[in-house]
Amino acid sequence: MSTSAAEETLARDRPLLERSGTAERVAEILRQRITEGVFPPGSRLSEPSISAALGVSRNTLRESFQLLAHERLAVHELNRGVFVRELTAQDISDLYVMRRVTECGALRRAAELSTVDLSAVAAAVRDGRAAADEGDWQAVGTASIAFHQAVGDLAGSERVSTTMRQVLAETRLFFVLAENTRAFFEPFLERHERILRDLERGRFGPAETALEKYLREAEKQLLAAYDRRDS
């Protein structure tokens, strides 16, 4: 996306800051736009243009950049500025180690709870299928991220949920560069539906097994896409 288009998108976000102009809220907006691809990996986050577009001070913006850097979504390069982070193949592998530990652990924890609310998981599955029916494969990817966040949330732990948000935001950095195609995203839908069916039946063990297999296959798929991009 061009610089001017990105600025126009941020300008439309300005009303979101009416209640709070804090660095946390600015970081939330930028995080969303980064994971949507408005600011793709490797692009420079211009202080003057973003500050003007959002109507916030440079100091507030710098604090938000620090938050994004802490989340590994941005990196400061000396004498050059702040850039959206670019993932390496090792980053992808490490992210999926963390995802398997966190998401599969969340299902084990959920199995111990007396009640589990699956509404967010089911909503993400419905959203993904509806987006696929419309041929909007980028939206299918967004629904996939929501599905995995909802799975992490089943643990009932704010720390687990926070970890999932950060890890999934990093994962989405690579989704921006991957193919937004039916072949890339459609297999996710069937896996989501199978996992949801197991969870609805209280079959947490099979759901965890299916999820771990799914995450390993997704890792291989993303690494293959990464290799194609660099070849």
Automatic annotation (TrEMBL):
Keywords associated with the record: DNA-binding, Transcription, Transcription regulation
Residues in HTH gntR-type domain copies: 20-87
Pfam families (alphabetical): FCD, GntR
InterPro entries: GntR_C (IPR011711), TF_FadR/GntR_C (IPR008920), Tscrpt_reg_HTH_GntR (IPR000524), WH-like_DNA-bd_sf (IPR036388), WH_DNA-bd_sf (IPR036390)
Cross-referenced CDD domains: WHTH_GntR
PROSITE patterns attached to this UniProt entry: HTH_GNTR
Molecular function as annotated in GO: DNA binding; DNA-binding transcription factor activity
Protein name (database record): GntR family transcriptional regulator
Lineage: Bacteria, Bacillati, Actinomycetota, Actinomycetes, Pseudonocardiales
